[in-house]
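INFO  loader      accepted 1 record
INFO  loader      residues=64
INFO  predictor   begin
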Amino acid sequence: MRLQEFRARMESQFGSLRAQYVANDHVFGTLGGRSALEAIDAGVPVRTVWLEICKEYDVPPKDR
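INFO  predictor   done
INFO  writer      dumping tokens
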């Protein structure tokens, strides 16, 4: 998954403002205590970050 696809999925799933919060401010224990964008910047694959967000926010499997 590319970063552009990640951003599109985030906005589609959460809306513009909430997507920004989830990506920038929400800290995920499963991502080493980092935000989604911090994890991506640290080298965690974008797909892995997306799946962790999906788990945390109960995104339906069809939308993952």
